[in-house]
Model the fold of this input.
Amino acid sequence: MIINHPLLGPRDSAEFVYLGDANLMERPNWQSDTAPQDFYDYAYLRANPAGTHRELWFHEGGDRSWLVVTRNTVTHEISKVELARDVARAKGRSK
Amino acid sequence: MNYSGFKVIKEALTGHKGWKPAWRDPEPKPYYDIVVIGGGGHGLATAHYLAKVFGRRNVAVIEKGWIGGGNVGRNTTIIRSNYLLDGNEPFYEFSLKLWEGLEQDLNYNAMVSQRGIINLIHSDAQRDAFVRRGNAMILNGADAELLSEAAVRAEYPYLNFDDARFPIKGGLAQRRGGTVRHDAVAWGFARSADSNGVDIIQNCEVTGFHTRKGKCLGVETTRGFIGAGKVGCAVAGNSGKVMAMADMRLPIESHVLQAFVSEGLKPVLPGVITFGAGHFYVSQSDKGGLVFGGDIDGYNSYAQRGNLPVVEDVCEGGMAIMPMIGRARLLRMWGGIMDMSMDGSPIIDQTDISGLFFNGGWCYGGFKATPASGYCFAHLLATGTPHPVATAYRFDRFKTGHMIDEKGVGAQPNLH
Done:
């Protein structure tokens, strides 16, 4: 697989480390009344779809940036690559 | 029809006209007491034990393709019970005991070959860990034997003993481990289940669950609605896809694991060798091909094929531990979809939906578990209580903190 890095251009996926579902960026609020259930869902349960999947890749063998890659889990086709930083900022985080 | 040497000779002398199909091809009935989704090793084993041990005859196995076309036909055929933790070891030892009597039980030649498995040791720390594991195995009734470097050298003189990075310092052997003809496992269980009255329905894909007031009443399929008293799901890599139809999210990710076989060679590898430090394992099939594999690719996938970086990594592992493997040509390679759980251990449990049961999360160790998985799932489906060796395989262990994490890497499925 070739991951088209937003800053560095097309890179071999072997340069990256895979973390998992991009939902792992959405850490629950630990002060919420439902925090135990929320953290269980967050840490252990996965949608695990057959098809389009947004996922986190870390460019360990490169610029050490985190990417949100939109990839089809049935065909391995990559349709979108974003910097995780940009995704978080678009949601109003890390200001 | 009973298979025997006498039957083979009789058929040979009468033109092989007396053989019959090993199982029927029935139309689905409108209702079964128990419907098992998934005609792979685990689903068919479940049906066999339901019928034969627990006396449940009104049972169907429904399979979207043909039976044995998934992971039971794609694995590297190794059986063993060399686990460390209490939640796992009694279960896998139970499985190995079932393997030992399987062919007599099924009246089917599954070519169970207890040729032994050796985990190689490369450092003092690894020896300590393997001594501990060996003791855990012995405490649970399994066999384990610590081998010196000389003992490993006597059996496998051609391994790379003096490697600078991973010199071989010994091994942990389990002599009762070995290999099994994997397709025959699916066929043997199918034939036995069928002859005990189970309907095996192929080309029948589940498209939804019919539930009312929190109770599962049956499954919608491509061949119509099938009512069921209880539904058991044993679909391995497709667990996430199937259980999503019941609005369930699982502690499982689907990953692709590749396996490889070389061209046929003369007998060279008497048993199974595992090189845990580099993650490479190899055995030789009875046809002569070296069957080997390594790590999963490491990303979510439902494609039954992997990518080249792992091919390179596995071949490097092979060259590192057994340099002569470089003279053999690769004949075939393929991928299967692993249901990687959050602690590397499986789940055999009820779901929150009454009447719906789940068996999955086998990671890439499901083949060796096939008979015990079927036995314990049948126990759960028939009696409503978990089998004593499978009590730890609960859904809620992630919530209560009772993970069974052999490698201790946490909720990171691609590291298990």
Q: What stands out?
A: The two ends of chain B are 43 Å apart (CA to CA). The CA atoms of residues 218 and 228 of chain B lie 5 Å apart. The domain at 117-178+253-341 of chain B is CATH 3.30.9.10 (D-Amino Acid Oxidase; Chain A, domain 2). The mean pLDDT of chain B is 96.
